[in-house]
Amino acid sequence: MSTPSGGEAARGVAPRPRFLAEHFESMGAQLDTSTMGIWLFLASEVLFFGGLFTAYGVYRANHPELFRYAQYFLDWRLGALNTLALIASSLSAAWSVRCAQLGQRKGLLAALAVTFALAGVFMGVKYLEYSHKLHHGVAWGASYRASEEILRSLPEAVRGLPVPDHMGTFFSVYYLMTGLHGIHVLVGMGLYLWLIRRARLGHFGPGYYGPVDAVALYWHLVDMIWIFLFPLFYLV
Amino acid sequence: MTTAAAGTAQGPAAESYLHHGRGLRSWLFTVDHKRIGIMYLALIAAALFLGGVFAMVLRMNLWWHGGGLVSNDAYNKLFTLHGAVMVFLFVIPGIPAALGNFVLPLQLGAKDVAFPRVNLLSFWLYSLGSALFVAVLVVGGVDTGWTLYPPYSLEGARGLGILLALAALFVVGFSSILTGLNFIATIHTMRPPGMGWFGLPLFLWALYATGIIQIVATPVLGITAAMGFLERLFHLGLFMPEYGGDPVLFQHFFWFYSHPAVYIMILPAMGIVSEVVSVFSRKPIFGYRFIAMSSIAIAVIGFFVWGHHMFVSGQSKWASLVFSFLTMLVAVPSAIKTFNWLATMYKGAIVLKTPMIYVLSFFAIFGIGGLTGLFLGSLATDIPLHDTYFVVAHFHFVMVGSVLTAFLAGLHYWWPKMTGRMYGETTGRLSALLVLVGFNVTFIPQFFAGVAGMPRRYATYAAVFQTNNRVSTVGSFILAAGLCLAVGGLLASLARGRRAPANPWGAASLEWSAASPPSHHNFDRTPTAGDPYDFSGLRLVSEEAGYVRAAGEAP
Amino acid sequence: MTSRLLEPLAAALLAAGPGYLPERASSVAESVDRVFGFIFWLSLFFLALILALTALFVVRYRARPGRTEPEPSPSHHSRLELLWSGIPLALVMVVFAVSTVAWLGMIEPEAGKDPLRVQVTGRKWSWWFDHPGGQGAAELHLVAGRPTELVLASTDVIHSLYLPDFRLKQDAVPGRFTRMAFTPILAGTFPIYCAEYCGTDHSRMTASAVVHPDQASYDAWARQGAAEALSLLDLGRKVAAAKGCLACHSLDGAPRVGPSFKGLWGREEKLADGTSVRVDENYLRESVLKPGAKVVAGFANVMPPVPLEEREMQGFIAFLQTLGNAP
Amino acid sequence: MTDRTAPTAGPPGAGHRPHALPARVLLGTAAALFVLTAATVATSRVEMGAFNVVAALSIAGLKASLVALFFMHLRYQGRFKAVVFATSVFFAVLLVGFVVFDTTQYQPDIRAQAARTRAKR
């Protein structure tokens, strides 16, 4: 890293950039540090989800029949739709960084708005899925009481199978993982609202795009986790 | 924590950080790493006091083998809170959050940490977590042990207390993650010109290694606490066998965090020892690279050993074998450090100031704590010793004795920098001796009780162990007296202590080139880093003026 | 001066370290103690080394008038450092090897012999041992020289069966079985503790292991313990003691975790839900089998269900009747 | 994550020209992700037993790598960020791997207990 020494001397000459914090010498150093920070944060997020992936692995390895059976309660088409929504939003998030770096203000606003909207689509679908399941008693752990109706809607071949023990455990893991992921999506939506507001105020440009970049990195991680959740719950 | 006016005698130095802004708000909403460090210090001292009071009640109850002071239930709650408060509010954040926050940017010659507001957030989270622990007390406490093993901890009969305790863990965990994140980013991107990776003071290497653990391990504690919380509320069937869960899974999660957490505690302690032993031997640290790399090695290997807490828990035998093997490896970097510290003292000019006496105590205590770990990492001997007083004594030596002596060494060492006052040397030395004696008298008898078969967490015990326990109780009073004396001496110095020079010890790392106490911006101009262990150019002018780099000697 | 400081310390440790080990009552104890001794001497050597060097350096190299500067000495020495990395590495590998060999002998039952299989059940706050042939007891009965296998289970939370004299310990985990295998070698009575924290009376969750000198003595105990051989009242008294009731219910009128048995029969009890009930045969049956159904006011709902055989139940009720009516 | 405590107003700092990813890299990555999503759905339709999980995880891993390398421009950043991320993934895999391994080892003891409980009922 290169830190120009004697930064104080520069103070009298050129005005200090508006978004340069007191304890940094240059915008470059500040950006470098904030990128580092967000990557470290993402590392801790990976381990945070890692605990839940472990729970998934443990119950899947020990109750394979349960996971095979319970999967029929999930509609893979909705999962796939959400996957597409998140990938598209990841693209627009990456695009927003590009726009900020190139100083394209309109493009930036559009990309941020599209990201936010696609996240909204994702949460809308999630809401439909959750409400349908909970309405039919397909809840977590000890609260699992599947209604006759939803059992009748299962594929023919599945209906004849014996119902495995501890169906609720599958849905506990399901709600925990998708729920924690959903909370991350909601947080991301809040962050995008904040970015949209700042972008409208014209804060971002080639010289200052750290927040756009940081939030996009976070958003990509959220996307990445869903990339794993989708096949693990809906497909296999 | 405010001192009387402390404008430095040398020249028109800038206003000290203690006086930059007045009133409670200027402290609570500060982003100044020094003030955050001081606030941490105050809360951590309070946690130590609270945990210590619990400990004293426990020890007094154990004076009689049948108990007698408190009921079994009260005893169980007390040891739980003693453990939880000490581990999560004192030992884990103690050195990194209080001393690390204060010292890290100064040692880098920087104005602040990389993310000052995140740093403040981290402090607030810590305060919130502490408040939640106090709330646990208010609602009647919990009696689960700090390890919170289900199914016991999540049983239906347990009320609000356990939920608050799990929430507290979650919050405190995030505080710890943010601190680690901040430190790593700071060390990476804010090193001054002239300071390469191998020019970092070893305390920073230790904090760096600690940061790795905080970032990687602590999230697992967070998610485990969250899962426990939801399991208790909604019966998810994750850990509770009655709903199809697996209690051993919780133990895996818990120790995946809590074993590396032991290294969160001990690594910064080792960092302080490396600093102090070099400065007070007036000699460069011996084998800098080995010490730095062994910190990283401990941090990394520390992740592979969690299963040694589960040798009798029903873990599979292959897992036990692998974990025992890997546990043995951790002994090596610790041994390297110890011998390198000793080699640093060899042919030095050893100055027996208070910090150095605490460090010498550390050698003895860490020596015993580390070596008794061999008994517990080895499978055959762990089976009988597991969950006995041997374990209690062992982890008190490592987590409490070693960390406490290093913490006090660091506190005395940096006290002049933090407050601008010199503590009283006689009181300091006496307190160090009392702590050393008190600690050993308290915990050595517990090794013997454990070998003879006394299980831990016993409110009452077989009469044969009464002598051990009585000696231990006597020791705990000596230890408490030592701690009170240390704290008293430090507090008294705020009012009556001599003004501290910028560099009272003749240390060469950058924090000593700032004023004592430093100004709000730490340094008037970014200092250029030299070798942090090159003391050759430093000359003692007088006790009042401290050490000054001789003219003509390049820094 | 250093030796005067160190000698008493070393002497104390010697007497107190391995000297503190309890009796060696099982086949594995000796090999465990050998490993213990090895690590003990090894650590004592290194501790002494560290302390001696510390003391020596402090005394020799203390700063004093005439010695204000350090003597020149190297700031690193790679070969030396590799040496003191390599030696500990080699030693801990030896420790690992020695210990693991001993441990493998602790977890595998001796092949080819007819083991005594005992089902162990942990519950708050007592142990229950089902011996082959149906004799249940609150004591573990074993035969010296006969290989033994314990299968552990728990009805509520995690407990840990700890036999210090046998150098053995194993958690009993609810929802699964765990196992221990060993051979007792000394006849006598040895303490059993619970080593995993399990609540209020964790520290009172003790039992004994009775090791019979030979099979004949064990068989005699097993016959005498058979339920048919006892009168109803004796059987009841035995059940109350053996099933762990007395851990929580006193016989002297003092309330403990549960109400005292003294004067219980026929009493009008206030319940936690505000109603009250007379202690009669039906109430007792219900409270034994479903303790949570009617909890007496002022006591926590913590009792585990105690499934009793019909004759045991009759005996138990008969026993309670002898403890006096309510005034 | 960034501070704006400096009161001095001014245009966003000049002089620092960031390296923006070319549009075709972004679009290409997204296209690959869409295709791989279709692929993962397709492979799950084919009954391959335990191999289904392996295939799904491999494709997911590939997709995640694409996101990390291009969208998160890990490919163009300092090595350290890749090390940070790889380390976290490594430890997460360590946790999952070891715990799953251990619990599968003692499953027979859990099944036996469940069978006994069921028999008693």
- The CATH C-level name of chain B is Mainly Alpha
Alpha-carbon distance between the termini of chain B? 34 Å
Biggest sheet overview of chain C: 5 strands, mixed
Overall residue-averaged pLDDT value of chain B = 91
Helix content of chain C: 25-40%
* Elements of chain C, N to C (H/E): HHHEEEEEEEEEEHHEEHH
Q: What is the count of structural domains of chain B?
A: 1
The third-level CATH topology of chain B is Cytochrome C Oxidase, Chain A
Relative helix content of chain B: 55-70%
CATH architectural designation of chain B: Up-down Bundle
* Quaternary organisation: heterotetramer
Q: Provide the CATH top-level class of the largest domain in chain C.
A: Mainly Beta
Task: Annotate the secondary structure layout.
The complex is a heterotetramer of chains A (236), B (555), C (327) and D (121).
Chain A: H1 7-13, H2 27-62, H3 64-70, H4 76-102, H5 105-135, H6 148-152, H7 156-159, H8 167-200, H9 210-235
Helix pairs in contact in A: 2-3, 2-8, 2-9, 4-5, 4-9, 5-8, 8-9
Chain C: H1 2-16, H2 29-61, H3 78-107, E1 116-123, E2 126-130, E3 136-137, E4 140-143, E5 148-154, E6 159-163, E7 168-172, E8 178-182, E9 188-194, E10 207-212, H4 215-224, H5 232-242, E11 268-270, E12 276-278, H6 281-289, H7 310-322
Parallel strand pairs in C: 1-5, 4-10
Antiparallel strand pairs in C: 1-2, 2-3, 5-8, 6-7, 6-9, 9-10, 11-12
Chain D: H1 23-45, H2 51-71, H3 79-105, H4 107-120
Helix pairs in contact in D: 1-2
In short:
Chain A contains nine helices and no strands. Chain A is mainly α and 236 residues long. Chain A has one domain: Cytochrome c oxidase, subunit III, four-helix bundle (Four Helix Bundle (Hemerythrin (Met), subunit A), Up-down Bundle).
Commentary on this structure:
The complex is a heterotetramer of chains A (236), B (555), C (327) and D (121). Chain A is mainly alpha-helical and 236 residues long. Chain A has a single domain (25-235), classed as Up-down Bundle (Four Helix Bundle (Hemerythrin (Met), subunit A)). In chain A, 75% of the residues lie in helices and 0% in strands. Chain A has 9 helices and no strands. The model of chain A is unreliable at 1-12 (pLDDT under 50). Chain B has helices spanning 24-28, 33-61, 72-107, 116-138, 160-189, 202-234, 247-281, 288-301, 317-345, 354-377, 379-385, 389-419, 425-452, 466-496, and strands spanning 538-542, 546-549. Mean pLDDT of chain B is 91; it is low at 1-12. Chain B has 14 helices and 2 strands; from the N terminus they run H-H-H-H-H-H-H-H-H-H-H-H-H-H-E-E. Chain B is 64% helix and 2% strand. Chain B has a single domain, classed as Cytochrome c oxidase-like, subunit I domain (Cytochrome C Oxidase, Chain A), CATH 1.20.210.10. In chain B, strands 1-2 form a two-stranded antiparallel ribbon. With 555 residues, chain B is mostly helical. In chain B, strand 1 and strand 2 (546-549) form a beta hairpin. In chain B, helix 4 (116-138) runs antiparallel to helix 5 (160-189). Chain C has 327 residues and is of the alpha+beta class. Chain C has 3 domains: 2-62 and 77-107, Helix Hairpins, CATH 1.10.287; 116-224, Cupredoxins -  blue copper proteins (Immunoglobulin-like), CATH 2.60.40.420; 230-322, Orthogonal Bundle (Cytochrome Bc1 Complex, Chain D, domain 2), CATH 1.10.760.10. A 5-stranded mixed beta sheet of chain C has the order 3-2-1-5-8, with no helix packed on it. In chain C, helix 2 packs antiparallel against helix 3 and helix 5 (232-242) crosses helix 7. The longest helix of chain C has 33 residues, at 29-61. The radius of gyration of chain C is 28 Å and the shape is elongated. Chain C starts with a helix and ends in a 5-residue tail after the last helix. With 121 residues, chain D is mainly alpha-helical. Chain D has 2 domains: 22-77; 78-116. Chain D has 4 helices and no strands. The longest helix of chain D is centred in the last third of the chain and has 27 residues, at 79-105. Chain D is elongated. Chains in contact: A-B, A-D, B-C, B-D, C-D. The interface between B and C is large, with 85 and 85 residues.
